[in-house]
From TrEMBL:
Domain D-isomer specific 2-hydroxyacid dehydrogenase catalytic intervals: 3-312
UniProt-listed CDD domains: ACT_3PGDH-xct, PGDH_4
Gene Ontology BP annotations: L-serine biosynthetic process
UniProt keyword terms in alphabetical order: Amino-acid biosynthesis, NAD, Oxidoreductase, Serine biosynthesis
Single GO molecular function: phosphoglycerate dehydrogenase activity
Catalytic activity: (2R)-3-phosphoglycerate + NAD(+) = 3-phosphooxypyruvate + NADH + H(+)
A Pfam family: 2-Hacid_dh
Pathway: Amino-acid biosynthesis; L-serine biosynthesis; L-serine from 3-phospho-D-glycerate: step 1/3
InterPro entries per record: ACT-like_dom_sf (IPR045865), ASB_dom_sf (IPR029009), D-isomer_2_OHA_DH_cat_dom (IPR006139), D-isomer_DH_CS1 (IPR029752), D-isomer_DH_NAD-bd (IPR006140), NAD(P)-bd_dom_sf (IPR036291), PGDH (IPR006236), PGDH_ASB_dom (IPR045626)
EC number: 1.1.1.95
Protein name: D-3-phosphoglycerate dehydrogenase
Residues annotated as domain D-3-phosphoglycerate dehydrogenase ASB: 323-440
Domain D-isomer specific 2-hydroxyacid dehydrogenase NAD-binding: 105-280
Length: 534
C-alpha cells in the first residue's frame, strides 16, 4: 500500500510503515493542485497541522483508506468529507499531550516574567534589569478554558506551582474538575474575571471559534492570556489591541488563525505578546510517540483491524475486538444475501443479535451488515460511511439484542424491508469460526457463504432438485454443496447451492422456464457479478 506523508513526522513512524511492507513517500511542501496529484494513488495520507485536507483531497484520492493525523487537532481535515468518501480519520490523541502542557507552562512563565523580551534586549547588548518586574504565579489564579487531556496536564503542573484553579468547560462534571483541585465555573466571563492567567485548551470548533474576543479580554483585565491550543479561538486583532492598550498585561501564543503567522500580523508589533511558531508538540519524545501511533493506525486500517483512534468510524474496544471480529463477515454476508433476495427499494434494515454476541458492543458489526446490504446496490460503501449513507437515503436502521437464542450460541439476523415485505437472513459461526448462513426468509438452511451461491425457490415436489442439478451440470457448473429447506411437504422450498462456477444466463433461463422453479438468485460473495433473475 502507498502512504503519502505531507508533514514531517519522526523517523520511527516512517520506519514502522516500511517495516510493515508499505511504500512511503514523503513530500513536505506539497499543497493545492500538487497535493491533489500526489494523493491520487495514495492509500493513506499522513499529516500534521500543516496540510489542508479538504473535500477536494478526498475527491481526488479514490484509493484512500485512512488519513492519519500525527497529533491531536483535526481542524485541518474535513472529517465530514472523509466520512462521505468512506475514509477513516484517526489522530494520535495521547503522544504529545505532555509536550503541549509543558509548552503551555513555559509560555506562562515567558509571559509573566517577560523572558523573551529580556533575552532579546540582552542579546542586543542591553542590561535592562530595571525594566522588567514580573508577576509571580504562586498564589495567583489560573483560569483553564477546556479541561481535556492537555488542560488537565497543565492543571496538575500549575497547581503544583501554587496556583488556584478555576475551570470553564461545559462538558465536564464538577467531580472531574475537583479531581484536579479546580473550581468548575459555568460562565466563561466569570472564569476570566477570576483569572490572573487564562489558558485555552479547547479544540477549534464552530462553537469555540472567536470565543475569546474584546469582551472576554476585558473580563481578564490585568491578566495574561495563553493560547497553545488553536488559532481562531482567540480574536487576534482584539488581543493585539487589548495588550497594546494595557487591558491585559500580556499574552503568549503558540497557534494562530493563519499559519505560518503572516508577517503583517498586529500581534508581531506588540511588545508584550510572546509568540512561538506552533511548537507545542515539537519535542523528540512527542514526535516519536505520535509518529509511531499514527503508523500503527494506518497499518491497522490496511489490515482491516479496528482503528482505535478513529474519529469517524464505529467505536471498537480493543479487548472486545477478537470476540466480535468473526461476526463482521457474518453480518456483511447476511446483509448482502438479504439485499439480493428482496425485491424493490430497501426502506429499512434491522440487525438483531441473539445469544452471546448480544453482550458485545456491536456498532462495527451493524455497520458491516449495512455495508453488505448496500454493496449490491453498487454504492461505494464501507463500515465508515454505511450508517451515514443509510441516514442520507432515508433508510431506517434498527439494532436489537437479546441474550436468548434457540439453536445457536450466537446469531446475527439481518432483515431488509421494502415497505411491504421483509426478508431476513441469519448467520452464525460454527465452532466459533466458520461462518454459516442458517436461515433465509424463514427457511432453515446450512450454507457456507463463499464464492458463487445459487438460491432457488421452488415447489417441494419430486424431481425439482434433480432438474436443477441436471441443468447446472449441462452447463458445466459443478455443485460443491447444497442445502434444501422447506415450509411443509409439498409447499414452497428454498434451496441453497454452493457452486464452483458462475451460472450462465442460459442455465438460469432453462431453470426459470420450468413451472416448479419460482425464483433463482445468484449471489457472488467475493465481489462483482451479482445478478438476479425471476
Ligand atoms: N500547540 C500545539 O502544538 C498543540 C495543540 N493542541 C491543541 O490543544 C487543544 C486541546 O487538546 P486536548 O486537550 O487533547 O483536547 P481534548 O479533546 O482532550 O480536550 C478539549 C476540552 O475542551 C472542552 N471544550 C469543548 N468545547 C468547549 C467550549 N466551548 N468551552 C470550554 N471547553 C470546551 C472539552 O469538553 C474538552 O474537555 C486542541 O485544540 C489541540 O489541537 C494539542 C497538542 C499540541
Ligand atoms: O497535536 C496538535 O493538535 C498540534 O497542534 C500539534 O501540531 P503539529 O503536529 O506540531 O503540527
Amino acid at each position: 500500500m502507498k502512504v503519502l506523508v505531507t508533514d514531517p513526522i519522526a523517523d520511527p513512524g516512517l520506519e514502522r510503515l516500511r517495516e510493515a511492507g508499505h511504500e512511503v513517500e514523503t513530500d513536505y511542501d506539497v499543497e493545492g493542485e500538487a497535493l491533489l496529484d500526489a494523493v491520487r494513488d495514495a492509500n493513506a495520507l499522513v499529516v500534521r497541522s500543516g496540510t489542508d485536507v479538504s473535500r477536494e483531497v478526498f475527491e481526488a484520492a479514490e484509493d484512500l483508506v485512512i488519513v492519519g493525523r500525527a497529533g491531536i487537532g483535526v481542524d485541518n481535515i474535513d472529517i465530514d468529507a472523509a466520512t462521505d468518501h468512506g475514509v477513516v480519520v484517526a489522530n494520535a490523541p495521547e503522544g504529545n499531550v505532555r509536550a503541549a502542557a509543558e509548552h503551555t507552562v513555559a509560555m506562562t512563565f515567558a509571559a509573566a516574567r517577560s523572558i523573551p523580551q529580556a533575552h532579546g534586549r540582552l542579546k542586543d547588548g542591553e542590561w535592562a534589569k530595571g525594566e522588567f518586574l514580573g508577576t509571580e504565579l504562586n498564589n495567583k489564579t489560573l483560569g483553564i478554558v477546556g479541561l481535556g487531556r492537555v488542560g488537565q496536564e497543565v492543571a496538575k503542573r500549575l497547581d503544583s506551582l501554587g496556583m488556584d484553579l478555576v475551570v470553564y468547560d461545559p462538558y465536564i462534571s464538577e467531580e472531574r474538575a475537583a479531581q484536579f483541585g479546580a473550581d468548575l465555573v459555568d460562565d466563561l466571563h466569570e472564569t476570566l474575571a477570576r483569572a490572573d492567567v487564562a489558558t485555552v485548551h479547547t479544540p477549534l470548533l464552530p462553537e469555540t471559534e472567536g470565543m475569546i474576543g474584546e469582551d472576554e479580554l476585558a473580563q481578564l483585565e490585568g491578566g495574561y492570556l495563553i493560547n497553545c491550543a488553536r488559532g481562531g479561538i482567540v480574536d487576534e486583532d482584539a488581543l493585539a489591541a487589548a495588550v497594546e492598550d494595557g487591558v491585559v498585561a500580556g499574552a503568549a501564543l503558540d497557534s494562530f488563525a493563519e499559519e505560518p503567522l503572516p508577517a503583517d500580523s498586529p500581534l508581531l508589533d506588540v511588545e508584550d505578546v510572546v509568540v512561538t511558531p506552533h511548537l507545542g508538540a515539537s519535542t523528540e519524545a512527542a514526535q516519536e510517540n505520535v509518529a509511531v501511533d499514527t503508523a500503527e493506525a494506518v497499518i491497522a486500517a490496511f489490515d482491516g483491524e479496528p482503528v482505535l483512534t478513529a474519529l469517524n468510524a464505529p467505536s471498537v474496544d480493543e479487548t472486545a475486538f477478537p470476540r466480535i471480529e468473526p461476526y463482521i463477515a457474518v453480518a456483511e454476508t447476511a446483509g448482502k444475501v438479504a439485499a439480493q433476495l428482496l425485491d424493490g427499494r430497501i426502506t429499512g434494515v434491522e440487525v438483531t443479535y441473539e445469544g452471546d454476541i448480544a453482550a458485545e458492543d456491536v456498532e462495527l458489526v451493524t455497520a458491516s451488515a449495512l455495508k453488505g446490504v448496500f454493496e449490491p446496490l453498487e454504492w461505494q460503501v464501507n463500515a465508515v460511511n454505511a450508517p451515514r449513507l443509510a441516514e442520507e437515503r432515508g433508510i431506517e436502521v434498527t439494532e436489537s439484542k437479546t441474550r436468548q437464542t434457540e439453536d445457536f450460541q450466537s446469531i446475527v439476523r439481518v432483515a431488509v424491508h421494502n415497505g411491504d415485505d421483509e426478508l431476513a437472513v441469519e448467520g452464525t459461526l460454527f465452532a466459533g469460526e466458520d461462518p454459516r448462513i442458517v436461515r433465509i426468509d424463514g427457511f432453515r438452511v446450512d450454507a457456507v457463504p463463499y464464492g458463487h451461491m445459487l438460491v432457488a425457490r421452488n415447489t417441494d415436489e419430486p424431481g425439482v432438485i434433480g432438474l436443477i442439478g441436471t441443468v447446472l451440470g449441462d452447463h458445466d457448473v459443478n455443485i460443491a454443496g447444497m442445502f434444501n429447506g422447506r415450509e411443509t411437504q409439498g409447499g414452497q422450498a428454498l434451496t441453497v447451492y454452493n457452486l464452483d462456477q458462475p451460472v450462465p444466463e442460459a442455465a438460469r433461463e432453462t431453470l426459470l422456464g420450468d413451472d416448479r422453479v419460482v425464483e433463482v438468485t445468484e449471489i457472488t460473495l467475493d465481489g462483482a457479478d451479482e445478478r438476479k433473475a425471476e
